[in-house]
Structure to design on (302 residues):
């Protein structure tokens, strides 16, 4: 039995990956934002810049070589795909970026049921043309499985090139901004917003009751990421909406990524979720694999 076939069968039967796929959530270079600070090259290697006709409109995050996770409201319908350009490996919005690559939009998939950010389902997947190549400054973020949760008070980061306060654009060369924001529980967030907005089950909040630090216009679609106990960075949210920027009792509201794990894996086959079960082979091949499991293990151990 050829070795490569044994390896394939072993992966399908056991769920153990023997490939050399890029590991997500591990920035090789180290670890619109209000109250933030400039990031450094490679700190957030999954961050992408989404532009329309040469103008920055939104952020997004790389989840594999071909697909970017962003917000549905960044792509109004009808959409002119040819007008979009996605930049990976970018640090400065208006300056020189030695390591950036540019990509066209090959396809766009909007989460079912999306209408407005306030009504939920504010998630989109963008297919890149051509796919990215992994480098020290271009890396994927991990996507959580449906059972992964982020605790209230957990410190996370939101990144983007959006306004630094209401109506004030990022100045100078426009270096990517980063800011620490704590997760706010759904009940606490609803109590802050009161009747101004409904915080739905597919949303997650992050920020401060006093305001001062937040995402803002132009950060939409960008990632809210949290470092887990094992050091891996996982995307908890997608910048969705808020009332103003960094206003008291109005923290940022994000699409909760774990609520969309089924949608994401239905579009991006083979994507391994953080905290999710390994994908298994199914159908007639699965029956064959079960009968050959012992043989495969013997072959691999020789």
């Amino acid at each position: 039995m050829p070795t490569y076939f044994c390896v394939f069968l072993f992966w399908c039967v056991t769920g153990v990956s023997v490939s050399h796929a890029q590991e997500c959530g591990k920035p090789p270079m180290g670890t619109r934002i209000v109250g933030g600070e400039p990031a450094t090259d490679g700190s957030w290697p999954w961050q992408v810049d989404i532009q329309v006709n040469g103008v920055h409109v939104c952020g997004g995050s790389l989840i594999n070589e071909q697909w970017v996770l962003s917000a549905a409201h960044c792509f109004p319908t009808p959409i002119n795909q040819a007008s979009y350009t996605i930049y990976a490996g970018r640090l400065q919005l208006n300056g020189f970026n030695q390591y950036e690559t540019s990509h066209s939009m090959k396809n766009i998939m909007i989460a079912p049921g999306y209408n407005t950010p306030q009504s939920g389902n504010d998630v989109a997947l963008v297919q890149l043309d051509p796919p990215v190549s992994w480098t020290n400054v271009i890396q994927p973020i991990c996507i959580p499985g449906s059972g992964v949760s982020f605790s209230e008070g957990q410190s996370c980061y939101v990144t983007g090139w959006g306004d630094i306060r209401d109506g004030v654009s990022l100045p100078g060369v426009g270096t990517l901004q980063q800011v620490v924001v704590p997760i706010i529980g759904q009940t606490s967030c609803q109590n802050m917003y009161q009747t101004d907005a409904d915080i739905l089950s597919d949303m997650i909040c992050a920020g401060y009751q006093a305001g001062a630090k937040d995402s803002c216009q132009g950060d939409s679609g960008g990632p809210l990421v949290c470092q887990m106990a094992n050091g891996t960075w996982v995307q908890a949210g997608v910048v969705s909406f808020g009332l103003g920027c960094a206003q008291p009792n109005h923290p940022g509201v994000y699409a909760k990524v774990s609520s969309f794990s089924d949608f994401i894996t239905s579009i991006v086959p083979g994507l391994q979720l953080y905290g999710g079960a390994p994908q298994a082979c199914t159908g007639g091949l699965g029956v064959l694999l079960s009968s050959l499991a012992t043989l495969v293990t013997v072959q691999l151990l020789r």
In short: Helices lie at 3-14, 186-193, 261-267, 283-301.
